[in-house]
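Sorry to interrupt, but I need a hand with the structure work. Could you add the entry underneath, on a fresh line?
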Amino acid sequence: MNARPSILLSGADGVCRQGDVGRYKAEVSLEVLKEAFGGLSAGSKWFSIIIHVTPFSFTCKVEDLALEELRGYDVFLCAVDSVETRRWVNAAVFQLSEFDGLERLLIDGGSQNLYGHVRIVRPGKTSCIECSLSLFTTLETAACSLVGAPKTPEDCIQYAIQVTWEEHNPDTYPDVRFPDVLEWLYKASLERAKSFGIDGVTRNLVDVIASNTIPNLSTTNSIIASLMVNVLSEEPVKKNNFYFYTGDGETSLSAFSLEADPVGAFMPEMNI
C-alpha cells in the first residue's frame, strides 16, 4: 500500500521523524501503526472472540514477491501508485485462485486530486484490472518518492507542487490557472533546487510540469481508504463492483457494476 509522506514522517505524537527519510515505507508504516495503537488486534461486534493480528512487512518490490508467500492470503487490499503493479497483483490473485481453487478477493483503491475509486475483483466472477485498463490515467506521480534528496530540477518542482504546497496550504491543491500560484511554485522549486545545488529550474519548466501534475489530497485518500474497508465488510451482500467518488463541487459517491471483457484480457503467466 502506498502511504503519504505526512503520515510516514510523523510518529504517534505528531513529531516529524526526519530520521526515517530513505527507509522502507513498509517498515516505517508498521512502526507508526504500532506506536499509534500499542499493538494490533481485531474483533467483531457479533462475536466475543478477539482475533489478534501479527503484522509484518515486506521490503521489496511487489513484483519481486514469490507467489508462494501470498498463498496464505484470501483478501488483497491494493493501494499503489503504479498501474503495472496493480496488473501484477491482479494476475497473482487469478493465478493463485486457479492453482488451489480457493476463492480470493482483490479490492483496488486509488485517488487523484478530488476523485477516487474502489474496485472489487473476484476471479472468474467479475471484471478485473485488465478488463478496464482504459479507466486509468497515464499521469502518475508519487510524492512519497520525492522526500529524499532530489536529483533533477523536475524533482524539485514536483516536491514544491506535492509537498511544499500542502505544508503551507493543507488539504488544497495549487490551481495553476492563476499566475500568482505558478510564481509561488516557481520560488518554492527554486529554493529547494538551490539548497541541493541543482540548476535548471525555470518558470517555463514549472508551467509545463504543474499543468501535468495531479496532486493527491489527504481527505480524498482517507475517504477512499475507509470505503475500501467498508466494502470489504459488506462485500458479500453487494452487487456493485466499482465505486467512484468525486469531491469536486457536489460531493457524491456512485456505484455500478463493471462487466468482464467478453474477448478476454491478457493475463501474464507466473510460476508458483
Summary: The chain has eight helices and seven strands. Confidence is low (pLDDT under 50) at residues 44-49. The first strand starts at residue 41 and ends at 43. The first helix runs from residue 5 to 8.
